[in-house]
Amino acid sequence: MNLGRWALVALGCAQAAFTVSPAAAQSVQLERSGNTYHTAVCARGNPLGTARCHSHVVTDSRGNPLLGKAAGASPNVTPSGFGPNDLRTAYSLASASTSGGVGKTIAIVDAYGYPNAEADLAVYRNQYGLPACTVALGCLKIVNQTGGSTLPRTDSGWDQEQALDLDMASAICPNCKILLVQASSSSFANLAAGVDYAASAPTVAAISNSYGGSEYSGEVTDQSHYNNPTARGIAVTVSSGDSGYGVQFPAASSNATAVGGTHLVLGSGETAWSGAGSGCSAYIAKQGWQKDTGCAKRTVADVSAVADPNTGVAVYGPNHGKSQWLVFGGTSVAAPLIAGVYAISGSVVPTSTTYTNAATLNDVTSGSNGSCGGTYLCTAGTGYDGPTGLGTPKGTSAF
């Protein structure tokens, strides 16, 4: 990974949150992974019944997003952060990404509008030699939560989330079409409506959801929006969170694939990312295919992929009114990445089958995302664990 003028040094996954002074950074809440500063692009503390996106942008120590490619740099300068070839190499996907996904669609559900979605995606795909994916070509379709053409108002944080999602889906499945569904707001009701529309659209193989919020008793009923598509052979991936140990909805949905996060160093393996969500659902029943004994209800996560901003990915997207190269982390990276793996796998399998095929994944055996008495629910170890689930992709066999 080319780190350009600054470093995303792999010095561990420890995460510390603090707030710098208003004079220094307009009260931007910074977090830190190793020596890398980053900030959540969607504000924390969202009201009950709403979701926040799980994307984090890498910044300097004052909270200013660091450019992944200097302004005016030669077109031949590779952006900082992992690109498509890095991700495919890490997860043994080079061959499947090249040939798979033809005739399939990845649906991405997010909140609010993103006016530059098509133009920004074109820059990313051109940079890495991926085939063009435009509205005119019939590769990209952008709709509201009911499939209409009247798009919602924009939101700067969710704009960045959508840029990340589009780029990660493209990185893993460049042959896939992309359906971007923009919900009117970040309420669970509107996002669920977007998932329902995505599930009804033709050729959709996977639906990616990079958001979540606090659990609530009504999720037992509401999870049907995330469970029902799997019955029709559509994978539903949901990011597990970015606040460390603890469960969020809709990742807790019983048949969705809850995607945790890792710290990835090419050639050196992975450890659990300290920000990934995990644990026992407060409300949703455990499925029979989950065999862990330390949790009586649904356990999060199922699988995982890179998420630590300290080993982040290259994204071309909005930054204070401009479109620029940036570096992102969060389990918002992992959810669309895993959706892409499902799409190139040839035949989407339910989450239960992934548990049967666990031996074909990369087992992540170290790292932690918080305090849970030292159990597997927050500490990675051999076999299943909360922060990384069954592990990360090693080809497509488990998907």
Mean pLDDT: 92
The radius of gyration over CA amounts to 19 Å
In the CATH hierarchy, the third-tier topology is known as Rossmann fold
- The total beta strand count reads 19
Please give the domain count: 1
Percent in strands? 25-35%
Distance between the termini: 26 Å
Instruction: Please give the largest β-sheet.
Output: 8 strands, mixed
Low-confidence residue ranges: 1-27
> CATH H level: which superfamily?
Peptidase S8/S53 domain
Description:
- The chain has 10 helices and 19 strands.
- It is an alpha/beta fold and 399 residues long.
- The protein has a single domain (15-360), classed as Rossmann fold (3-Layer(aba) Sandwich).
- The strands form 4 sheets. Strands 6, 7, 8, 9, 11, 13, 14 and 17 form an 8-stranded mixed beta sheet that branches. Strands 1-2-3-5-19-18 form a 6-stranded antiparallel beta sheet.
- Residues 1-27 have low confidence and may be disordered.
- It has helices at 22-25, 84-90, 94-99, 117-127, 156-172, 188-200, 219-222, 224-227, 331-344, 351-356, and strands spanning 15-19, 29-33, 36-40, 52-53, 56-59, 105-111, 140-144, 177-183, 204-209, 211-214, 235-239, 248-249, 257-265, 269-272, 279-285, 297-300, 303-306, 313-319, 322-329.
- A hairpin with a 2-residue loop joins strand 2 (29-33) and strand 3.
- The protein starts with 14 loop residues before the first strand and ends in a 43-residue tail after the last helix.
- The longest helix is centred in the middle third of the chain and has 17 residues, at 156-172.
- Helix 4 (117-127) packs parallel to helix 5 (156-172) and helix 5 (156-172) packs parallel to helix 9.
